[in-house]
Structure prediction request, 155 residues.
Amino acid sequence: MNGEMVESYLRDLIANLTDSPRPDWDSDGDLPVAYKGTQCYARVIRAGEELIVQTFSVVSVVDYSPELGEFLNELNRILVFVRAFHTGGQILLENDLFAHDLNGYTLSRALTFLAVTTTDFGPQMVEKFGGTAQFDPSIIQEPIIAEEQPPGLYL
Prediction:
C-alpha cells in the first residue's frame, strides 16, 4: 500500500467525519482532528512492512513523576483500545489502526475511543498531576455517543 495514498485518504476521511475542509499537516507532521470536543491528531507511520495510522490526543503538558507513572500503568491495565503514556513533557492517549483496515467506521471508532478516554480520565489527570489541560473541560458535561454508521469513504 502506498503511503501517499493512505495520507490522502486519511485527510479525506477526517474532512468527511468532521464536516470540515481537508486538514493540513502541522509542523510535527500530524493532522489535527477536532472530534467530539477533543483535539486529536492523526499520522501515518511505517512499522516494518506495515503502514499504521496512529491517532492520539494530548491530555496535559506536565512533568513526569513516579505517581504519574503508577497512574498511567493502572490506566493501561484497564484500557482496552487506547494506551496512555508520558513523553516529551506530555501525557498522550494513543491508538493504532492498520492502514489496510482504514475506513470511515474504523477511524470514527478510534477517535471516539480517544474522546471517551479523554473525557473519562483527562480531568482526573489534570487534577492529580497539574499541568496544562489540552482538551476542552466542558466535554465532561456532554456524553459522547458513538455513531452506529458514521459517514464512510472506503478505500
